[in-house]
Design brief:
This protein is of the alpha+beta class and 157 residues long. The protein contains two helices and eight strands; from the N terminus they run αββββββββα. Strands 1-2-3-4-5-6-7-8 form an eight-stranded antiparallel β-sheet, with helices on both faces. The relative contact order is 0.15.
Length: 157
């Protein structure tokens, strides 16, 4: 069982390394891609602006700025072919809702989330430096939010 478990971890580590290499290659070539920026409806009540990076071979990356009443977030979604391979979400929570009387809201908490996908399956989820396991209560919720946002953004392209 231990040998089998180690081979699964080794395989996942190889997949993560390949995903990181592909993300680095997309970022390196980003200046060469066609860019299209647009407002996207239906993701957040306070607005979402998405920039799409497209090569002749299709969608490579989406960068979204998402604004909410009590937060703002930036999401980067990377594609290989038509498949989502990586998502990075930085979520900033405010101390008060927008429009509340008094001073402007301040960011009181920031959370970074990294999602690694292979074949449509989430193979690793990091929240900050902590790896969440599939039995963690937040695992499915965060995965569903990231995939749902990526799908809505892609559909709006």
């Amino acid at each position: 069982m231990l040998v089998f478990g180690n081979s699964i971890f080794a395989q996942t580590d190889k997949q993560i390394t390949a995903i990181r290499a592909e993300v680095a290659a997309i970022n390196k070539a980003a200046a060469k891609y066609r860019k299209k920026t647009k407002d996207v409806e239906g993701i957040s009540l306070e607005g979402t602006e998405a920039t799409y990076y497209v090569s002749g071979k299709g969608l490579k990356k989406i960068v979204a700025r998402i604004y909410g009443e009590s937060f703002n977030a930036t999401g980067e979604f990377y594609y290989q072919g038509e498949e989502l391979i990586f998502a990075f979400v930085k979520h900033n929570k405010y101390d008060r809702p927008l429009g509340a009387s008094g001073r402007s809201p301040k960011v009181v908490r920031t959370e970074e989330q990294r999602f690694y996908f292979t074949g449509g399956n989430l193979i690793r989820l990091l929240v900050g430096k902590k790896q969440l396991k599939p039995d963690d209560e937040r695992y499915d919720q965060l995965k569903d939010e990231a995939v749902g946002t990526a799908d809505e953004l892609k559909k709006s392209y």
